[in-house]
Amino acid sequence: MIGKIAGRLEYRSTDHVLIDVRGVGYIVYVSDRVMAGLPANGEAVALYTDLLVREDNLQLFGFTTLIEKEWHRLLMSVQGIGAKASMAILGTIGAEGVSRAIALGDWSAIAKAKGVGPKTAQRVAIELKDKAPNVMAMTGAEPEADDVIETEAPAPVRRASPPKANPAQAEALSALGNLGYAPGDAAAAVAEAIGAEPDMDTAGLIRAALKLLAPKG
Question: What is the CATH number of the domain that holds 177?
Answer without folding.
Answer: 1.10.8
